[in-house]
């Protein structure tokens, strides 16, 4: 019984527990306690992971377990984590925990809401602990499909349209992904003639370069859709804007990270030759993504749309950094995933809480909120400052690392792309400060707003958890950075080996 | 042979019981038929040895017995779901006929699966088809049902004719109808291929592949809902089994040619059926197009043309049986209790009938191939089978089609869970038989997917192919 199995088991038990509750009030208590245990468990995992590493365990994946599932096709249920997976699990459990409290007041079909939300979380946890492509794909789809119900039932605005668009685009992405995965499977023949889905075994094998050229685009774009790769990002603004608070948090905070994570762990790691050959295409696309997302955010008036476009920009930066393929930038990419996950979750949580009070998300209809709801407003400013990369918060660590790494490339193409991407920081500052100025400062525009109540205990708990995590990374980034960079070596070896032609 | 003999015996017992029972005790017919058939389903799982009878006309093997067991389970579920309908006054006196006709078609299918020459195959096919057309017209007082029967018998006769023409070509060119004699004499000359194409077209009618699918939607819509379930699950499943057996055993010489044909058929079937399904509002028509599209997916597994391909097809049919019958169980239960058969009448169903809605949702997710239900595994293995032969483009088309299919499956889920309705279908309690069948289906849909042993068992059975 590996500790990793508990990451699946506890959500499943929580769902079962919720089924036995009578009403929404007890359902949310069960959900919160289940996810609290999950949060504790992920801290335990982190400690155990460090203990193992300090004891000199240098295996690529720790807590490795391997169960045969479908022997005829050599499909296994294989679990294991490296430092990157551990940090993603930490992120997920934090955001889910905060998300439960952000939806504390859920009234309509509350039990069903928490069940769907935790099903989504189960998919995400399962994805991060999987080492087998089949189980990875299974959990990936499991994470995507509850979104339809979550947005469709509990969403707002044109929710049915947004839910359908999001589901179909993500499922279309997973269609491409499936072809890519099958291609990888049938091109990875073990010594005994069987094929394998096991990531580590495939990484040892070196896929033929023709197969890499054919299947890399499928796999990369398939994951890229979930990572909001331009021009396949259009589901994201609509989906996030229509989703209920906790779902926006979880989706922008965690689910979009599945895309970036899959891009480098599956597509780039297993097909380094093609990754090097085709990186330029995707570097151009992600550069567009970063700039376009930032400018898109400037033009929006709806708080959720602003944040959704900002997510497109920041997630584009993740994939951009991965494609730079050196240790510094990839390290930055993973930190950016976590940093963006936390701050965007905080943003969406706060937007949900503000909307719950003012009943509008249009920034020009609000103003001077700092005077009436100081806690939420200060939290909003903190999220904003993290987003534009203020030193001392997580965003700075991530972006600094990415740009330093990206600029290590001596050639013109990479440098120009890096310079263009770097300018997005300025645009980010524009839309963040503009929102802060209009929304929080200035006179109170609407007299109804003068009697708004500030955050309740559960809202403080939700926002506080995320702020502590953001500041924790910003103040002491090295523990996270070491955790990640220790696990990046095999990736760097594969990717740089492919350039020098040693290792196709 | 045990299976077929017992089936004939049960048919006769039901007939006798109907004659012998006093008019006041006719309701016992249903009980007798159900219990006897349930017992038969269980005996189907007893181990079977490989063997043949009548000079090779009739073969049996563990794999064939497994296929028959899948069909038995499917028919048993259909019977359970139709008890409520049979208890209605207008059907009360026809219950025995219903069982006799259904058992006859199943006997035909069993012979077809076990056939060792084209003669036995054709007799089995006709025995399976003709009673089915009668069943489609079972509600003879309803115009739509009578129309469905007529349409079905005409198109069946036509397809049988075409199939027979193909068989006569094959007989003419090889000089035999006996499979072991046909195999070495068969080749790639034009007449051989023409005969094969006619045969495949005839089978295409039975499986309702595009462009041979025109009868399906009207017949499915007009027939009583349980017969629709039967046609879309048992008939189609049996036809798929016999097709895959014929292709793998008899026509393996022209594997390259039939793979090309299936490629085209499968792309056309998936795409066209999906596009039509989007526009349907009647649930029976909707399920008709959905099941046509599923047949297109099955062809991908057939193209694997090896042990894994055979396994993926049998495994998928098993999952399809459980999944589709879960969906039809809900549809028939609602139809019997309230008479509603349209998607829009399901608006707001979750708030009044949560369990039925959840069952329907799981069934539709399984049809769309979404984890954690078994449809995901079934589809994944079909695609794996096709990809093993290098048909990646076909797999891509299929997966994109699966995404389109998700759109219309989600329409039903949207109606049940999201749409508001001032007058939703009121709460009602389904009858005990339907509830049992739905529970069986849902447990099966989880079990067959997650437990690798189901797949492994079928894989071991398919070893001899």
Summarize the structure.
The complex is a heterodimer of chains A (504) and B (465). With 504 residues, chain A is mainly α.
Approximate shape of chain A: globular
Q: Work out the count of structural domains of chain B.
A: 1
Taking the sheet with the most strands of chain B, its summary is: 2 strands, antiparallel
Write down how many β-strands of chain A occur, each being a DSSP E stretch of 2 or more residues. 2
Strand content of chain A: under 5%
Helix content of chain A: over 70%
Shape of chain B: globular
Which structural category do the helix and sheet elements of chain B fall into? mainly alpha
- What is the oligomer described by this structure? heterodimer
Question: What is the H/E order of chain B?
Answer: HHEEHHHHHHHHHHHHHHHHHH
The count of β-strands of chain B is 2
Helicity of chain B, in percent? over 70%
The order of strands across the largest sheet of chain B is 1-2
> Gap between N and C termini of chain A, in Å?
37 Å
Major sheet attributes of chain A: 2 strands, antiparallel
Tell me the β content of chain B.
under 5%
Q: What average pLDDT do the residues of chain B reach?
A: 89
Radius of gyration of chain B: 21 Å
Rg result of chain A: 22 Å
Describe this structure in words.
The complex is a heterodimer of chains A (504) and B (465). With 504 residues, chain A is mainly alpha-helical. Chain A has one domain (3-500). Chain A has 21 helices and two strands. Chain A has helices at residues 6-19, 24-54, 83-102, 110-129, 133-144, 146-154, 159-187, 199-205, 209-226, 235-242, 245-270, 272-299, 303-323, 327-358, 369-372, 374-387, 394-406, 412-422, 424-440, 457-475, 478-500, and strands at residues 62-70, 75-81. In chain A, strands 1-2 form a two-stranded antiparallel sheet. Chain A is globular and about 75 Å long. The model of chain A has no long low-confidence stretch (mean pLDDT 85). By secondary structure, chain B is mainly alpha-helical. Chain B has one domain. Helix content of chain B is 77%, strand content 1%. Chain B is built from 20 helices and two strands. Chain B has helices spanning 2-20, 28-43, 62-86, 89-92, 95-114, 118-136, 143-174, 179-185, 190-207, 214-222, 225-250, 255-278, 283-302, 307-338, 349-352, 354-368, 374-388, 392-417, 432-450, 452-461, and strands spanning 51-53, 58-60. In chain B, helix 3 packs antiparallel against helix 5. The chains are: A mainly alpha (504), B mainly alpha (465). The A-B interface holds A 68-73, 75, 134, 138-139, 141-142, 145, 148-149, 152-153, 159-160, 164, 167-168, 171-172, 174-176, 178-179, 182-183, 185-186, 214, 218 and B 308, 311, 365, 370-372, 376, 380-381, 383-384, 387-388, 390, 392, 395-396, 399-400, 402-403, 406-407, 410, 413-414, 417-418, 452, 455-456, 459.
């Amino acid at each position: 019984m590996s500790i990793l199995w508990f990451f699946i088991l506890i959500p499943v038990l929580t769902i079962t527990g919720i089924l036995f509750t009578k009403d929404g009030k007890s359902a949310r208590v069960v959900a919160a306690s289940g996810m609290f245990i999950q949060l504790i468990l992920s801290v335990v995992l982190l400690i155990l992971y460090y203990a193992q590493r300090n004891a000199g365990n240098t295996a690529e994946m720790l807590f490795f377990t391997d169960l045969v599932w479908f022997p005829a096709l050599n499909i296994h249920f294989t679990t294991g984590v490296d430092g990157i997976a551990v940090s993603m699990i930490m992120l997920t459990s934090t955001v889910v925990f905060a998300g439960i409290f952000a939806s504390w007041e859920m009234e309509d079909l509350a039990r069903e809401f928490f069940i769907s939300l935790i099903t989504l979380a189960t998919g995400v946890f399962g994805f991060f602990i999987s080492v087998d492509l089949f189980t990875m794909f299974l959990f990936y789809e499991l994470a995507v499909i509850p979104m339809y119900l979550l947005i469709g039932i509990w969403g707002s605005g044109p929710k049915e349209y947004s839910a359908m668009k999001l589901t179909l685009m993500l499922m279309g992405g997973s269609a491409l992904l499936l072809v890519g995965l099958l291609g990888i499977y049938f091109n990875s023949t073990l010594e005994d003639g069987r094929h394998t889905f096991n990531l580590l075994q495939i990484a040892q094998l070196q896929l033929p370069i023709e197969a890499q050229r054919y299947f890399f685009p499928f796999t990369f774009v398939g994951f890229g859709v979930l990572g909001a790769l331009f021009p396949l990002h259009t589901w994201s603004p609509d989906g996030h804007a229509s989703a209920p608070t906790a779902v926006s948090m979880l989706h922008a905070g965690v689910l979009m990270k599945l895309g970036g994570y899959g891009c480098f762990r599956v597509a780039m790691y297993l097909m380094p030759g093609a990754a090097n050959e085709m990186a330029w295409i995707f570097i151009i696309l992600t550069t567009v993504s970063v700039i376009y997302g930032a400018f898109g955010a400037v033009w929006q008036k709806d708080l959720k749309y602003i944040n959704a476009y900002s997510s497109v920009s920041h997630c584009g930066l993740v994939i951009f950094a991965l494609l730079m393929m050196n240790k510094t930038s990839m390290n930055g990419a993973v930190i950016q995933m976590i940093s963006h996950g936390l701050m965007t979750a905080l943003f969406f949580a706060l937007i949900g809480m503000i909307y719950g009070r003012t009943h509008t998300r249009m920034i020009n209809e609000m103003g001077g909120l700092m005077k009436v709801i100081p806690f939420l407003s200060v939290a909003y400013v903190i999220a904003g400052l993290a987003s534009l990369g203020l030193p001392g918060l997580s965003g700075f660590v991530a972006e600094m690392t990415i740009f330093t790494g990206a600029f290590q490339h001596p050639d013109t193409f990479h440098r120009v792309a890096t310079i263009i991407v770097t300018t997005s920081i300025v645009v980010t500052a524009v839309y963040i400060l503009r929102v802060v100025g209009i929304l929080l400062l200035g006179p109170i525009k609407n007299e109804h707003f003068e009697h708004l109540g500030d955050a309740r205990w559960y809202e403080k708990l939700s926002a506080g958890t995320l702020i502590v995590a953001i500041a924790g990374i910003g103040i002491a980034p090295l523990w996270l950075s070491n955790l990640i960079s220790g696990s990046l070596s095999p990736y760097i070896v594969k990717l740089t080996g492919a350039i020098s032609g040693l290792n196709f | 042979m045990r299976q077929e003999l017992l089936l004939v015996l049960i048919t006769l017992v039901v007939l006798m019981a109907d004659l012998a029972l006093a008019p006041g005790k006719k309701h016992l017919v249903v009980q007798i038929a159900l219990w006897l058939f349930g017992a038969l389903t269980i005996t189907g799982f007893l181990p079977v040895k490989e063997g043949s009878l009548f000079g090779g006309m009739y073969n049996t093997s563990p794999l064939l017995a497994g296929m028959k067991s899948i069909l038995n389970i499917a028919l048993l579920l259909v019977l359970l779901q139709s008890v409520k309908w049979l208890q209605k006054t207008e059907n009360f006196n026809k219950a025995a006929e219903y069982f006799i006709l259904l058992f006859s078609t199943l006997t035909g299918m069993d012979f077809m699966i076990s056939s060792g020459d084209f003669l036995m195959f054709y007799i089995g096919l006709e025995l399976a088809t003709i009673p089915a057309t009668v069943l489609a017209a079972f509600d003879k007082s309803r115009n739509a049902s009578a129309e469905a029967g007529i349409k079905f018998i005409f198109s069946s006769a036509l397809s049988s004719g075409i199939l027979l023409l193909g068989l006569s070509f094959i007989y003419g060119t090889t000089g035999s109808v006996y499979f072991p004699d046909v195999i070495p004499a068969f080749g790639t000359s034009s007449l051989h291929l023409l005969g094969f194409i006619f045969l495949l077209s005839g089978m295409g009618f039975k499986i309702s592949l595009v462009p041979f699918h025109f009868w399906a939607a009207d017949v499915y819509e007009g027939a009583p809902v349980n017969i629709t379930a039967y046609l879309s699950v048992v008939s189609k499943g049996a036809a798929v089994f016999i097709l895959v057996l014929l292709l793998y055993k008899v026509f393996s010489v022209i594997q390259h040619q039939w793979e090309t044909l299936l490629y085209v058929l499968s792309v056309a079937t998936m795409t066209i059926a999906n596009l039509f399904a989007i526009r349907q509002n009647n649930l029976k028509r909707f399920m008709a197009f959905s099941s046509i599209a599923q047949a297109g997916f099955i062809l991908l597994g057939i193209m694997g043309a090896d042990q894994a391909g055979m396994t993926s097809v049998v495994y998928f049919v098993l999952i399809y049986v459980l999944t589709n019958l879960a969906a039809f169980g809900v549809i028939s239960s609602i139809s019997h209790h309230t008479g509603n058969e349209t998607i829009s009448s399901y608006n707001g169903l979750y708030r009044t009938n949560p369990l039925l809605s959840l069952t329907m949702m799981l069934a539709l997710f399984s049809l769309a191939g979404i984890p954690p239900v078994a449809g995901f595994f079934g589809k994944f293995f079909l695609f794996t089978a096709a990809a093993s032969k290098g048909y990646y483009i076909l797999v891509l088309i299929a997966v994109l089609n699966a995404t389109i299919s998700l759109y219309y499956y989600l329409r039903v889920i949207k109606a049940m869970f999201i749409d508001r309705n001032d007058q939703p279908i009121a709460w009602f309690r389904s009858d005990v038989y339907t509830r049992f069948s739905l529970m069986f289906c849902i447990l099966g849909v989880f079990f067959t997917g997650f437990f690798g042993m189901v797949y492994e068992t079928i894989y071991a059975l398919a070893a001899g192919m």
